[in-house]
């Protein structure tokens, strides 16, 4: 998420860029062209990066991320000063939290290969994180991006690489003394999701009966004796159907 501070506004004046709206982000450039949403995010990210003000990127507190809401993650990078690379990915809040925690914990050099012999290099996970902006979007916006692009776009597969790093860290944690704390955090996030689904179900006369710990499937019923099964990760979509 790009934080629009006074410093950023002053910087944009040098580029004759006017901020029309911060949510959704909307800007007008020197040619009087208006850019809304993702294009505006990419333009501002590039300007901030070129002026070495990356501290304005990713100023987002994990505690403010809602595990059930949708987010747009945008990567803006450059290959050997030859061409720019921009990618995006839509995901739920719990996945955003995982990505942030994974990158902050990754302390070795990262190399992402793409194309024929091109590669993106980063000093560590935090260096890569500094080039990713995070923005909360509506469910409708997420649905549109999923329908048009499958929820992601890009040639370098940066976000797929991050997922692979996460898998490596999960394996490493098995033999690490911090694994107990890691498990505790995962369980806290899981319980938060379960509680939200349970509370939402109760509003429409449904009761959560049981949860399968292995695959997070839960059983639910209502006063009419109807019974069904759902997936915690798809709880929001299920509840929407039950409301109809």
Give your account of this protein's structure:
- The longest helix has 25 residues, at 179-203.
- The chain is built from 8 helices and 12 strands.
- By secondary structure, the chain is of the alpha+beta class.
- It has helices at 6-14, 38-50, 93-105, 125-129, 139-149, 158-173, 179-203, 235-243; strands spanning 18-22, 25-28, 34-36, 70-79, 83-92, 110-114, 118-122, 132-137, 152-153, 206-212, 217-222, 227-231.
- Helix content is 41%, strand content 28%.
- The protein has a 4-stranded antiparallel β-sheet.
- It folds into 2 domains: 6-173, no CATH class; 179-243.
H/E topology pattern: HEEEHEEHEEHEHEHHEEEH
End-to-end Cα distance: 34 Å
Q: Looking at the structure, what is the overall shape?
A: globular
Number of helices: 8
Which key phrases capture this entry?
single chain; 244 residues; alpha+beta; 3-stranded antiparallel beta sheet; 12 strands; 41% helix; 28% strand
Explain the layout of strands and helices.
Blueprint: H1 6-14, E1 18-22, E2 25-28, E3 34-36, H2 38-50, E4 70-79, E5 83-92, H3 93-105, E6 110-114, E7 118-122, H4 125-129, E8 132-137, H5 139-149, E9 152-153, H6 158-173, H7 179-203, E10 206-212, E11 217-222, E12 227-231, H8 235-243
Antiparallel strand pairs: 1-2, 2-3, 4-5, 4-8, 5-9, 6-7, 10-11, 11-12
């Amino acid at each position: 998420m790009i934080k629009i501070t006074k410093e950023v506004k002053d910087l944009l004046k040098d580029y004759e860029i006017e901020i029309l709206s911060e949510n959704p982000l909307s800007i007008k450039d020197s040619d009087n062209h208006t850019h809304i949403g993702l294009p505006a995010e990419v333009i501002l990210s590039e300007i901030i990066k070129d002026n070495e003000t990356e501290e304005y990127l990713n100023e987002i507190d994990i505690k403010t991320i809602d595990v059930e809401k949708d987010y747009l993650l945008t990567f803006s990078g450059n290959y050997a000063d030859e061409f720019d690379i921009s990618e995006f990915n839509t995901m739920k809040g719990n996945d955003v939290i995982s990505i942030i925690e994974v990158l902050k914990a990754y302390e070795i050099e990262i190399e992402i290969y793409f194309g024929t012999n091109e590669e993106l290099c980063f000093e560590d996970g935090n260096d890569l994180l500094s080039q990713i902006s995070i923005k909360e979007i509506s469910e409708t916006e997420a649905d549109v991006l999923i329908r048009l692009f499958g929820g992601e776009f890009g040639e370098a597969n940066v976000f797929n690489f991050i997922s692979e790093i996460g898998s490596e860290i999960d394996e490493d944690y098995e033999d690490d003394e911090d694994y107990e704390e890691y498990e505790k955090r995962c369980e806290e996030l899981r319980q938060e999701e379960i509680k939200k689904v349970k509370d939402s179900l109760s509003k429409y006369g449904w009761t959560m009966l049981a949860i399968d710990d292995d695959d997070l499937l839960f059983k639910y019923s209502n006063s009419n004796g109807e019974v069904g099964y759902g997936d915690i990760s798809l709880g929001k979509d299920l509840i929407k159907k039950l409301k109809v």
